[in-house]
């Protein structure tokens, strides 16, 4: 029994020794960042102009902006402690993005104006909280569906028609998706933390799915919206932009006690009397509507209440 204990202890010490040696070797491993622009930027951040870049060095990186002329990300997969990565205006269309998929600690990823068409590399970045994909050529956003920690998402100015992958992003607070081909907002109906939404320049014809959400700001300009009755079920809505739609009636606004600013330019509204019964209203835009003959009197009454009204002439 005594010999057996000595043998086990010896084996344990050997394993520990070689484990330490392996860790030392791993820490001193040279990391080859082949792209000259990326290499230079990494060295600048690490304040290491010369000498080999080791794994210890690379692990010191917490935030990195990819230089515009970068052509390869090889070696970046070892920067396991990166929390912020910015590709703004980098032409990433021909860059192998697989190294990014290995950066599991990423919380912020910005790829606006990066000329990308697919985003499969974000699929396993479970710690992402802030994702910017604006002004690209993305059509399919299914890779986002499991990113349950996302709070801020910008997918504006892409070629997206289907937002079903957003339906389970229950922590989402800010959503920017202007200038796409979106019609159906149903996937958003259970996102109770949604606060700010930008949905201008789409093909949205119904905002009913926004019922009972806690949205405070909504930009819905330049869509195909006719019915805004759901607003009575949006008790926290403070600012709503509805310019360039097909709205005829604003009766739902009568008695509204949350909206401070509403923009209704270029619709088909004739009766604006409900605006007189909005105690929190401070700013309204009405240019480009076929207002009826009572409108001048109503506008003067609003001005007396210190409501800012645009020049409708």
From TrEMBL:
Looking at the record's lineage, which domain of life comes first?
Bacteria
- Key words, A-Z: Leucine-rich repeat, Repeat
**Protein's name in the database:** Leucine-rich repeat domain-containing protein
The UniProt entry's coiled-coil ranges are none
Species of provenance = Peribacillus glennii
Q: Which PANTHER family match?
A: LEUCINE-RICH REPEAT AND IQ DOMAIN-CONTAINING PROTEIN 1-RELATED, LEUCINE-RICH REPEAT-CONTAINING PROTEIN 9
InterPro entries, per database record? Leu-rich_rpt (IPR001611), Leu-rich_rpt_4 (IPR025875), LRR_dom_sf (IPR032675), SDS22/Internalin_LRR (IPR050836)
